[in-house]
Design brief:
Length: about 350
């Protein structure tokens, strides 16, 4: 075992922080043994805060229209072969109704940056959801908007916002996105969301093109400083109709290693074991939980649109009904000794 990486893993477990150089050395020093050591400590840390409870979020994919052109994403505007759709208010409310019946107490409304979903369209939908289901939390994941817009959505009832920072290295950000997208703007959005009072989530893809131990070290330092309420990380998976279609996927091993590190940096963080993790490995989501994650996000979108929200190739859960997805995850979690709970699942501070 690499002694240097192991002593850094011990230091992280004790101090919940490392220097950028130390994070870089820890990431570069990955071995299955160091990963195992971190996973055991992350698992214990997560149990101290959340026991064996796993929170579920019902994911509703509102639209696959997007005005952006991220090089990695299957619903980028230049993908002329994407079969575009957007859900109506009625569709969204039906998903919530079904989700509530299945025990979900958080709905995540996610979508591409679709100019159709203005504040005037979204606010009444949010108000209706919150009025019908006052015991539920609503999480939005709709990309970059003005501060005024974030404020209006918050006032209409949104509780949480997920906006992955994608990479905390400005140069790397420039390699993943076209010139009209800005690292500084993304960071400003995260600061705005925090200031308004949302529970905020950041995150990044593991194994994205041009990622290095150094860029990952910057991601980890950013997380240590920002202390997000939620952190979404999952492997990069190529989509064949994008400029990054020929790059390799991120690995389940590196994703789990980073999940453990993030749990140790910020013990109460809400950390999903993502669909992308289940896509690169049939037991990926179970492995993510065992490495320190505590959230799963089954799909609540209508079955007829699921294949169309294709961010990457071979995405799982596109043929299942919501109830099947919910049941499947219940079985998966209990197979490893965890229990899905019906609760809003706010961060425990
Ligand atoms: N438009 C919103 C935004 O930008 O935050 C939300 C939707 S966006 C598609 C959600 C996340 O999917 C992105 O933040 C990105 O990290 C992830 N994603 C996109 N393409 C991916 C790929 N090829 N592999 C893995 N994750 C991907
Ligand atoms: Fe969707 Fe298993 S979680 S089918």
């Amino acid at each position: 075992m690499s002694n240097a990486a192991l002593s850094l893993a011990e230091k992280l477990t004790r101090d919940h922080a490392l220097s950028i150089g130390e994070y870089e050395q820890l990431v570069a020093g990955y071995t299955p043994e160091v990963a195992g050591f971190l996973a055991r400590n992350a698992d214990r840390t997560r149990r101290e805060v959340y026991g064996n409870e796993i929170f579920v979020r019902g994911l509703i994919e509102l639209t696959n229209y997007c005005k952006n052109d991220c090089f990695y994403c299957g619903i980028r505007k230049s993908n002329i072969l994407a079969d575009r759709y957007r859900l109506s208010e009625q569709d969204i409310l039906s998903c919530c109704e079904e989700g509530y019946r299945l025990g979900f107490r958080t709905f995540v409304l996610q979508g591409g940056e679709d100019p159709y979903f203005t504040d005037d369209v979204l606010c009444p939908i949010l108000r209706t959801i919150k009025q019908r289901y006052p015991d539920c939390a609503v999480t939005l994941s709709l990309g970059e908007r003005d501060k005024e817009s974030y404020q209006k959505l918050f006032d209409a009832g949104a509780d949480r916002y997920l906006l992955r920072h994608e990479t905390a290295d400005k140069e790397h950000y420039g390699l993943l996105h076209p010139d009209d997208m800005s690292f500084d703007r993304r960071m400003k959005c995260l600061a705005d969301l925090r200031e308004i009072g949302y529970q905020v989530g950041c995150g990044f893809m593991v194994g994205s093109p041009y990622q290095t131990p150094r860029t990952l070290a910057k991601d980890l330092k950013f997380i240590e400083r920002f202390l997000p309420d939620m952190c979404g990380i999952g492997p990069f998976v190529p989509h064949h109709q994008t400029p990054f279609g020929h790059f390799a996927s991120g690995t389940v091993e590196m994703t789990c290693f980073l999940l453990s590190i993030i749990r140790l940096i910020h013990p109460p963080v809400l950390l999903p074991s993502t669909t992308a993790l289940g896509t690169v490995d049939p037991r990926g989501r179970e492995k993510g939980i065992l490495a320190g994650a505590n959230v799963v996000m089954p799909n609540l979108s209508p079955v007829n649109v699921r294949k169309k929200y294709e961010l990457y190739d071979n995405k799982i859960c596109t043929g299942e009904e919501s109830a099947q997805c919910r049941g499947c995850l219940e079985t998966r979690m209990s197979s490893i000794g965890f229990r899905i709970v019906t609760a809003r699942g706010d961060i425990r501070k």
